[in-house]
Amino acid sequence: MAAVCCLSLAVAMSAFAQSDEPYEGPTILTRDSNTAGQHGGQLLDFRLWGDITGVMDDGLTAPTLTSSGEVNTQGPLYGGEAGFGASGTRTWEFDQISLDYKGSWRQYTVNNLFNGTSQFLDLEWQHRLARHLQLIVHETGGISSLSFGTMSYYPLANSALLGVPLNELFDNTAYFSQSTLELVWQKTARLSFGFGGDDFMVDRKSPLLVNSSGYRGRADAAYRLSARQTASLSYAYEYFEYPRAYGYSRINQLEAGWAVGLGPRTEFAVAGGAAQTDTLGLVEVQLDPVIAAILGESYTITTSKRDVIIPVGEARWTRRFATSAIGLNAAMSVTPGNGVYLTSRGMNGAVTYSYAGSRRLTFATTAGYSRMTAAGQQTIAPYGGFYGGAGATWRLFTDAHMEARYDYRRYNIRDVASKNENRVSLGLAISTGERPLAIW
Fold first, then answer.
1. Most exposed of 112, 147, 280, 375 (fewest Cβ within 10 Å)?
2. Which fold, 2-431?
3. Domain-wise residue ranges, the chain
4. Distance (Å, rounded) from C-alpha 380 to C-alpha 362?
């Protein structure tokens, strides 16, 4: 849920996941930043859960028009969801497996256009090949049927998630996957190297929306300046293609980073650089009046190849308390778009807070802003908006919990359209485990 964007802050606290673990140095932003199996900055034991909730969705928008030619926006719609999930982390001498999974089925009372299923899997395996060599395999995938709510606990600022549809304009079924392989070599006590690759795809059901796929290769070097300071340099090559549209993008990205531990529970990390973006696409060009008079057309479509330099970077501040965590995150990146926008400049910012220390209560809230601007393949107005919300679970007795959440999203396309989305959910859940339920 948007109310629990733990990924934007928990990653920078993974070294503190258990109080008896040694400090391993501040975060390196350019490396794989998965936090499956942990909430509020703490690792979780494996647990299963199931829930039944009542939902109210307002502002759902399909990629279709009504009989009067208007955008098909529905709401408020009332219905119910039944879900099942599993999460947690298990550690052995040389291996660690972390998992977050949620599946749900949604049914509305008066409209079946938006009925459907949502599935989300976030799975990571870490294996120590040798004393100074670690292998990380990370898989993210699932089915998304709403533009926000189900997966929006992932912050839109997480630019590493190229294959997760987080910033969609329409409520449309999409199948997605991103596979990551990373190798980290700790050459000396101060110097380490990271090598990784990603392959991703997003397949949207509506034929009006553009699919995307591609891959990324990356390498970085990090040097420990002191016990609590790390400097890094990274390079990444990315390739985006669009099966339902003409064009592609090739991106070469270089970033330098610095991270510092500001005490046993606080970290600040920043990275910045530039992305050289080579795009090929189709654009509409106005014809000369004489040619237009002969052809009877005012515009024509032609290919456009552009090479632009885009600033990229990320800044992250986190503070972990004994039972809660707070974080600030801001990022600029190049993204593969959202089915309407193709290769885009993305700018995001969020503030998050999560609490998971009480024997009965877990709580989290977030607020953020996102913006997308076409990066060369299209002439289209910028798209941006605000999102936020809060959610909580309360242990009623033994394994029974009550859960409630509210999410809000507003987006604007300059001089074209704006939309407000609201989601309210309230229900009951059954969960194993001693700690309070935190299903996000």
1. 112
2. Porin (2.40.160)
3. 2-431
4. 42
